[in-house]
Design a protein that fits this description.
The protein is mainly β. It contains 2 helices and 23 strands.
């Protein structure tokens, strides 16, 4: 997707992310220093450089921009997982975090169009570019998903029920058991004919309905069954046993979120602020990942 993310941009505007950001700013609610040490973190100071990563390592590129763009990636050795908005929002600052996985040994170039903060009227803006060499992990062992231990999950058998994402506020509540939430996976289905892919945005909210993170990704119709949203900074600090919610939006009418009767016991599905089903408890299909 070469153009800016329209749905993601609307969410950004709603939270006043309207100008360039300080890529090095520290935010409340991020994970511990030890977790971040496992991540290859890059920003505009790395423009034009060659850097090294290991298979399975999470790579994050923080760039200030007026709107996020899908990066151009030259090799399957590097896979784009998600694009997140740095949190919490700060009026006058906007940082987009491009989250990659070093998927295989090899070398790839990553290019991201951005807005020149010092000269926003410059035609075409700027392009961030970096070349990443991916090597094998120590002793040949991959660290793939090392910080993603399955936590909460709805394991009920799906019986073909789903609700369209478009124009609806769909939420699933859950209670994490680990103090760090690293990723969320949702199960979608193709609801209507349309393009080969569409952008879906996931928002994580606390019990009061306050957003804690906003993450987006372009979802292909042939890979929508399990859609993984990865959080930046190695995950978010959460309070085990407290209620949180996953909210999905976007999809341009293309996708529906699968749900079941009953299912996951520590949360429930809601539709526009009300129970999804009037006369029965229901839950969307999802899985969360965490770490200590």
């Amino acid at each position: 997707m070469a153009n800016s993310r329209s749905a993601f941009s609307l969410v950004a505007l709603a939270f006043l992310w309207t100008s360039c950001a300080n890529a090095g700013a520290q935010k409340a609610g991020i994970s511990s220093t030890s977790a971040k040490q496992q991540i290859l973190s890059l920003n505009f100071t790395n423009n034009g450089q060659h850097v090294a990563a290991t298979v399975g390592q999470q790579i994050e590129i923080r760039l200030g921009a007026m709107a996020p763009y899908d990066p151009q990636v030259s090799s399957s050795a590097i896979r784009l997982e998600s694009v997140a908005l740095d949190w919490p929002p700060n009026p006058g600052l906007a940082t987009h975090v491009y989250i990659f996985e070093a998927a295989a040994e090899g070398e790839g170039a990553v290019k991201v169009p951005i807005t020149d903060c010092s000269n926003p009227d410059l035609p075409g803006g700027l392009t961030f570019a970096v070349t990443i060499r991916v090597g094998r992990a120590d002793a040949g062992r991959s660290t793939h998903y090392a910080s993603r231990t399955p936590d909460q999950a709805n394991t009920a058998q799906w019986e073909n029920a789903w609700t369209n994402l478009e124009f609806n506020v769909l939420r699933q509540s859950f209670m994490p058991s680990r103090p760090r939430l690293t990723a969320v996976e949702v199960e979608l289905v193709v609801a209507n004919p349309g393009p080969a892919s569409s952008e879906v945005t996931m928002t994580l909210l606390n019990a009061g309905g306050d957003p804690l993170a906003v993450v987006a990704k372009t979802v292909p119709v042939d890979a929508c069954r399990h859609v993984l949203f990865v959080f930046p900074n190695g995950g978010l600090r959460v309070s085990p046993g407290q209620l949180y919610s996953i909210e999905l939006s976007g999809g341009a009418g293309l996708f529906g979120w699968k749900y079941v009767m009953g299912g996951y016991t520590n949360g429930a599905a809601s539709f526009n602020g009300k129970p999804l089903l009037r006369d029965a408890r229901s839950t969307f299909l999802f899985r969360t990942f965490g770490a200590r």
